[in-house]
Amino acid sequence: MTAPLKDITPAERARGTSFYEASARTRLELLLDAGSFVEFIGPEQREVSPHLKIFDLPEQFDDGIVVGHGRLDGSPVFVAAQEGRFMGGAFGEVHGAKLTGLLRAARQIGSIPVLILFDTGGVRLQEANAGELAIAEIMRAVMEARSAGVKVIGLIGGRSGCYGGGGLIAGCCSALAVSEPGRIAVSGPEVIETNRGVEEFDSRDRALVWRTMGGKHRRLLGAADVFADDNVQDFREAALELLGLVGPFGLDSVKAEQERLADRLRRFGACEDAVDIWTAEGIAHAETVPELPADQFIALADRIGRTSRDAR
Amino acid sequence: MTLDDIITSLFPDGHEVRNDKGVLLGSATLRSGDTMLVLGVADRTALGVDEAIRLSGHVLRSIGRDSGPILVLVDSDSQRMSKRDELLGLNEFLAHLAKVLIHADMNGRPTIGLLYGHSAAGALLATGLATRVLVGLPGAAPAVMDLPSMAKVTKLSMEALEEKAKSTPVFAPGLSNLAQMGAVHMTWSHAASLADQLEALLADMPAARDRRDALGKARGGRLKAAEIAERVRDLAMQAR
Q1: Which residue out of A51, A53, A55, A140 would a mutagenesis test of the B interface target, given it has the greatest number of B Cβ atoms within 10 Å?
Q2: φ, ψ for residue A264 (rounded to 5)?
Q3: Within a domain: residue B161?
């Protein structure tokens, strides 16, 4: 017999559950209002990848992504959560098409936001062409939805991070929340090392990986707007905060984004390491940033004050 | 065909397209007398933060100032794989380039990609795959993933991969495989003038709606994507 959970509220359970460690389904269950989640094309329908059997690889009945509808503080939201433990959360044909369909509905409706819980290494190698194209279709669908007034929020804090084409989709979102273990990049550490050598990037130097691609650096750069502690309740609160902050998307946004990114290159383009960037931002003892606990780091990031608001 | 040959054949009425370290920026005159904005990546150059910001800036400077369609020429490496590019947020720069192209396309500046050489991964997503119509030229050699890297990850031999590639277009490199997926809308011929083929496309541009999944289904390359997306869309419309 396990101990009864009856005295624990959903918020307490969400607060006590690591986002990083949780499965995609647990993340959704605890992120949304209790009992509100309805899945579209769930695992019982066994819509598996048609391509993995070419490689004698096991399929998963949901192809590694859960999409559906639920409520957040009483308001309707569409949600998609990638399962980083199935093939690294990689995008394949079916996996990607579920998210594309969800975004197309959001565009048509116009008023229901979309939350994407990224957890992905990028394109699924065994169906590389279909996966790459799925990502292109999702990027287009995100921009069409945003142009129709839909807020698309990315939440990044899973085991597989948000790499490859996942990083590009994240860059198309209205706003992002990230936790310390959430990494955002295009080329992963091993990919850079394999292609350019260990002198360019030592993928086994975990401290280097975290400070180059990890959540703290992304938050300080303004690539992510909110830093969440690694628990599901913090991500829920971050999502609610971002939904309240995101403005409309249009020509002014892309122009502001051009200026924001060009300014970043001017300021930090010659920096060789994240610590140099943080130092250039005026952070004293920048080398201690990776050790800061979440509350102190959030205070620091808020003081630096870089966000992508009004841009992006 | 060299890049110069391609541009001359596309724009016999003149162009001002400059190649600066693999970044193509400029404009050209169409037969109609209209101007076409031109940008792209040449000489198999890797697309990093410095290249991407120049390309997106070129498009943004044109919006509001010019009218007419936009051409994106592509002969790139993949995204630039470096510590510096990732440190500075390469994902944001590549996404921004794609966003600018998509935004332009949705707002009266139809975009055409012309894949005439190599491209891969993040570079292809930010350029050719962010246009409304992606055209391939014979000899183009896109590779989302190259087979030696795939062999390493899948622990299969090159021979085994090449054998599997014969029966499915879903993972192997090459223009025809991407066309079967629906990613490449059409392949032009070197036998006719590229200007004629460009004018024919411009006269008959498809609507801005993304139909690549339906194209992939019709061509037998992606049998499930269109149906899955449509089913999810229907369910989501009912659920609100």
Answers
A1: A140
A2: -60, -45
A3: no
DSSP state of A162: B
Residues B41 and B24: their CA atoms lie apart, in Å, by 6
CA gap B174, B181 in Å, rounded: 11
Q: Say if B171 falls within a structural domain.
A: no
Contact between B123 and B41 under an 8 Å Cβ cutoff? The reply is yes
- Residue A4 distance to chain B (closest CA, Å): 34
The fold adopted by the segment(s) A10-184+224-247 is 2-enoyl-CoA Hydratase; Chain A, domain 1 (3.90.226)
Dig out the tokens for A67 from the structure. Answer: 């999409």
Where residue B115 falls among pLDDT bands split at 50, 70, 90? very high
Model confidence, pTM: 0.97
Residue B155: its pLDDT value, please?
81
Shortest Cα distance from A1 to chain B (angstroms)?
38
CATH of the domain at B8: 3.90.226.10
pLDDT in tens, A171-189: 999 999 999 999 999 999 9
What pLDDT was estimated at residue A5? 59
Mean pLDDT of B162-167: 85
User: Which position has the token pair 């509350």?
Assistant: A295
Q: Which residues of chain A have pLDDT under 50?
A: 1
Residue B110 lies in a domain: yes
Give CA–CA dist B73/B112, Å, rounded.
Answer: 9
> Which residues from chain B sit within 8 angstroms of residue A41, using beta carbons?
228, 231-232, 235
What digits encode the pLDDT tens for the residues A267-297?
999 999 999 999 999 999 999 999 999 999 9
Place of tokens 């120049």: B54
Q: In this structure, are residues A107 and B240 in contact, taking their beta carbons and an 8 Å threshold?
A: no
Q: Looking at the domain assignment, is residue B180 inside a domain?
A: no
pLDDT in tens, B118-131: 999 999 999 999 99
Q: Across the interface, do A143 and B124 touch by the CB < 8 Å criterion? A: no
Owning domain of residue B43: 3-138+188-208
